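Archive maintenance. Older records in this collection stored only the sequence; we are now back-filling the structure field for every entry so that each record is complete. The fields below show one back-filled record exactly as it appears after the update. Entries are processed alphabetically, and 3-hydroxyacyl-[acyl-carrier-protein] dehydratase is next in the queue.

ARCHIVE ENTRY
Title: 3-hydroxyacyl-[acyl-carrier-protein] dehydratase
Organism field: Cytobacillus purgationiresistens
Length field: 160
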Amino acid sequence: MKQIISYDKVRELLPQEYPFIFIDFVTDFNQSQSIICIKNLTGNESFFQGHFPQNAIFPGVLILESMAQSAILLNKLSSPEKSQDKKYMLAGTKVRFLQTAIPGDQLKIETEMIKETSGGGIVKSSVWVADKMIAKADLTFAISSQEKINVKKETFHDFC
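Back-filled structure field:
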């Protein structure tokens, strides 16, 4: 599988930091349209130890996080000049889990931009193991500057 964007570049682009990066590399990218990302699951990842000790499965919330991270990458790669110092917030989800993922699986995360605005967007994302879809979601995200977030925090604290 050909990598067009390496893990090091993914790590540089995402606002999350290790151990909360759930994209290993990118195999396909069409500007402002779609992206395909890969996450390899290995049994030595910490979340498998407790989820579940006798029957390890990749937590659904982390499948959702991998879809959200693919949407961030799609947005940042499509508009690098606009995405400088921006914060991404998941504003809404409609997600369906169809099957579990286990250590040794390779997740293929396919994300397509449905609508893009200056303040966010809507994507459709699906996660595949081999030829089986294991999850799908419609994600709505908002993009804001840190300054706006800080102002909202200060306003909120004033009311507490």
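Update note: The chain has four helices and six strands. The chain has a mean pLDDT of 90.
Entry marked complete.
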